[in-house]
Design brief:
The protein has 804 residues and is α/β, with parallel strands linked by helices. It folds into two domains: 10-18 and 46-458, Rossmann fold (3-Layer(aba) Sandwich); 491-736 and 762-803, no CATH class. It has 29 helices and 14 strands. A hairpin with a 2-residue loop joins strand 12 (675-684) and strand 13 (687-695). The longest helix is centred in the C-terminal third of the chain and has 33 residues, at 771-803. The protein is globular, with a radius of gyration of 30 Å. Its main location: cytoplasm. The active site is at 311 (proton acceptor). One of its GO terms (molecular function) is methyltransferase cap2 activity.
């Protein structure tokens, strides 16, 4: 029996933990290490002939160590005991000096990277990554669904530990919950594992993450790949307020209640993190509240005997020390694992918790933990330092020391090679080692291809999914450069943002200035979504994230740092819908029927039809930073009032109406089905419009739904609750409503009417395959870029004149 706190080899690990459930895995990983030299018969065989036996042995040992970065906590025979619930969060914060010394040593090494250009450094570390061949090999040989680094890391955990408990195998049923799961690779990886090793298991899953479609969530806080989420919306829970914020206790309890509806949950994963680029030395403190909420959520969701997989980083502060002690007392077995596919130079580790003692056992402590659940932990420590057993602290020190040394050794090696360059021999050895590690990964974890029919969504469908906001996040310059940029004066920052804006290629994608679309006379799939009001639009599925970020930064500079002239005032004025209760309704209404060059042209094209003009110009755009909810609702009522006055074949011009939120886009989408023809007009500067031609009269089903929207808004207001209507349709309907498959099954479209331009010829319209989404987003891109460019130009011109 290994000694307490000892390091386990994979063979020891399996003998200790797999003997009770060996039948759940199709093949054991025992005995694979001796096959390492056989890998030299692969594609680099010619160069291997030059290697000595010592070279073989050195590489073999390095491969073995690379897959054996584990630490196993060993409680005493009587188990560690939690302090009384009354002692939770009552003691002052404390520090363990030995752990603080490790933190200092690690930060001293990491600080050596501050002056390196990030792009150059990351290119170098990618070349030095010993596991860099694994994803390439998986993609080319197996083509797993939604393959990412997270996919690989979960698969390693699943194959190295008994995350899928023997009870699951016996009952042939698994319910799993995945916290902070975006973009969803843990789920597709678990599916791959189950289909290969336990194909008879009936699996249901539920996931949560910051809602990528809630416009009040900043894009910087979210993963910018929503392809999988968009295709599996029914399995995602974004909480009572639809934000997906797990650190709200109401959202957590709502998730736990929905998870209980599936039955016993025997696996919970948590892969969350927070961007710490601006203060990497305090990563642990920054993410500690998130880790607390993830762990406490798991303790509420899991059934007795279940497993919990938690991503963590360093473990030097009292917040993490106490959390680790809580987990060690809540589960029979706790281990810390650094997967081979986790980048060696970072602090990432996975805490593997097996055999949960159960909510009944933990309830006295859970009651107190719920009271301190939130985005910020209390100043007090979870447990007094005196209540943490010394043997636990000793084992934690051994654990953190092990992973700290692994990390610093890699960073120092990378720095040394970066400074002097790699020799030819080192490059050859690294190439060989990467091949060996990839081969070892494939063999050890028994990797096999999965048919697309067994996948969750399917690779083909994911590839076709709209991915607007997958714009890369630029990492220009060094860490020091970024810090200097964050301290720029407003005008200097404005110049930087102008350069970034100018570099973005935004143009009208269609050959004609007017894009014609036609929709069926009715639409199904209404789904009213209520949640926390969006006061400020920080993100949008209908606009590039970078572009919206620049817009918000520029307007903030104009509002807070620059005293605008009257010429700029229209861009930066605060929306009339402020929290003081002043309504913007009258001011907007005064401009609704305002004629413009565009409206005159539209009226001339259809002289024999009545035209209703709703011209919002800047009135709704200025509300995006504050009071957005109030302005949107007032505009909704304007539109509904206008329809009450319309007759068959009347036209509508909706001008200056921002289509950045699901609510507004849903209104436009609804209008598209109420008219014979729809035209998205190429913006001229900031003058843009959607033209609706030939009112069809109300479809009873659609009128009933909009009346429900109206009554729901009124009810929520009268109740005084902090909720409102956020959307009218599921987000995937607004992005991909009309697919080729649906038309193949007989979905029909009404034939276009002849245009009243004197030609007497009908114009064939497009069939709307994702074109609605494209029209909406492209109008937004052009308008936002033009708007921001004008603000910047006006401010810089004002400053130029004031300095003369």
């Amino acid at each position: 029996m290994p000694q307490p706190g000892s390091f386990l080899s994979l063979g020891e690990e399996q003998r200790l933990h797999r003997n009770s459930a060996s039948e759940q895995s199709s093949k054991s990983t025992d005995g694979v290490y001796g096959d390492i030299p056989a890998s030299f018969s692969g594609r680099s065989n010619r160069n291997c002939e030059r290697m000595t036996r010592n070279d073989y042995e050195e590489l073999e040992n390095e491969v073995l160590k690379y897959f054996d970065k584990k630490f196993y906590f060993r409680p005493p025979l009587q188990d560690w005991k939690l302090p009384e619930p009354s002692k939770i969060f009552v003691a002052d914060g404390w520090k363990e000096l030995r752990l603080q010394q490790l933190k200092t040593e690690l930060n001293n090494v990491k600080s050596k990277l501050d002056l390196y250009n990030l792009n150059d450094w990351h290119k170098h570390t990618r070349a030095m990554n010993k596991a860099g061949e694994i994803q390439w090999k998986l993609r080319n040989e197996l083509e797993p669904e939604f393959l990412t680094q997270a996919w690989c890391k979960f698969y390693e955990n699943a194959m190295s530990f008994i995350l899928v408990t023997p009870v699951v195998v016996i009952n042939e049923c698994l319910n799993s919950v995945h916290l902070c799961e975006a973009p969803g690779a843990f789920i597709t990886s678990l599916n791959h594992y189950l289909k290969l090793h336990n194909p008879g298991i009936k699996w249901k899953w539920l996931a949560t993450t910051l809602n990528p479609y809630y416009e009040g969530n900043p894009l910087s806080c979210m993963i910018n790949d929503d392809r999988f989420i968009l295709q599996t919306l029914e399995s995602w829970n974004f909480g009572l307020d639809d934000t997906g914020n797990l650190m709200d206790v109401k959202n957590m309890l709502h998730l736990a209640k929905e998870a209980a509806g599936m039955g016993d949950v025997l696996l919970v994963t948590a892969d969350g993190s927070i961007d710490c680029q601006e203060n990497p030395g305090e990563q642990e403190s920054i993410v500690s509240s998130l880790h607390y909420c993830e762990a406490v959520s798991a303790l509420h969701i899991l059934a007795k005997g279940g497993s919990f997989l938690l991503k963590m980083f360093t473990m030097y502060e009292h917040e993490t020390v106490c959390l680790m002690f809580l987990l060690c007392c809540s589960f029979t077995t706790v281990q810390v694992f650094k997967p081979a596919t986790s980048k060696e130079g970072n602090s990432e580790v996975y805490v593997v918790c097996l055999e949960y003692r159960g909510k009944d056992f933990m309830e006295p402590w859970l009651e107190v933990l719920r009271k301190h659940f939130g985005p910020e932990l209390p100043d007090k420590a979870m447990f007094p330092q005196t209540s943490i057993p010394q043997d636990f602290l000793d084992q934690l020190y051994d654990c953190t020391s092990m992973f700290k040394n692994l990390q610093t050794d890699v960073i120092e090696t990378n720095i040394r090679v970066y400074e002097r360059g790699r020799t030819r021999g080192e490059a050859h050895k690294m190439k060989k080692l990467r091949y060996l590690i990839a081969d070892h990964f494939m063999k050890t974890y028994d990797m096999q291809k999965l048919s697309e029919s067994d996948e969750v969504v399917g690779k083909s469908k994911l590839k076709k999914t709209m991915t607007l906001n997958m714009d890369p996040r630029a990492e220009e310059g060094s860490f020091s450069d970024r810090r200097k940029k964050s301290k720029l004066e407003p005008l200097q920052l404005l110049e930087v943002l102008k350069e970034e804006l100018d570099s973005m290629a935004v143009k009208w994608p269609f050959s004609d200035d007017v894009k014609h679309l036609q929709f069926p006379p009715c639409v199904d799939g209404f789904k009213l979504q209520v949640g926390k009001p969006v006061k400020t639009v920080d993100s949008s599925k209908f606009c590039l994230g970078r572009l919206l970020r620049i817009r918000n930064q520029v307007r903030e500079i104009a509002r807070n740092y620059i005293h605008p002239s009257p010429s700029i005032e229209s861009y930066v004025q605060t929306s009339p819908s402020l929290p003081n209760g002043i309504s913007c309704e009258n001011e907007v209404a005064a401009n609704l029927n305002e004629e413009s060059e565009l409206s005159q042209k539209f009226r001339k094209a259809y002289p024999r039809r009545n035209l209703t003009i709703l011209n919002y110009k800047e009135k709704l755009w200025t509300s995006l930073e504050s009071g957005n909810e109030e302005a949107e609702i007032n505009a909704f009522w304007d539109i509904m009032d206008a329809f009450d006055m319309m007759w068959r074949e009347d036209n509508l011009l909706l001008q200056g109406y921002p289509m950045l939120t699901q609510f507004n886009v849903g209104i436009v989408y609804m209008l598209c089905h109420l008219f014979d023809e729809v035209e998205f007009v190429k913006p001229i500067k900031e003058d843009f419009a959607v033209q609706f031609i030939g009112f069809r009269q109300w479809n009873p089903k659609m009128r009933s739904f909009l009346e429900e929207v109206d009554s729901t808004i009124e009810k929520l207001r009268s109740e005084g609750c902090n909720q409102t209507v956020l959307s009218l349709f599921p987000i995937n309907m607004l992005c991909e409503r009309y697919s080729s498959s649906s038309k193949a099954e007989g979905e029909s479209y009404e034939q276009p009417h002849k245009r009243e331009d004197g030609s007497g010829q009908s114009k064939k319209l497009d069939d709307c395959d994702n074109t609605f989404y494209k029209c909406v987003t492209e109008v937004n891109h052009l308008c936002v870029k033009e708007q921001v460019s004008d603000i910047i130009a006006s401010i810089l011109e004002q400053q130029r004149h004031s300095s003369i």
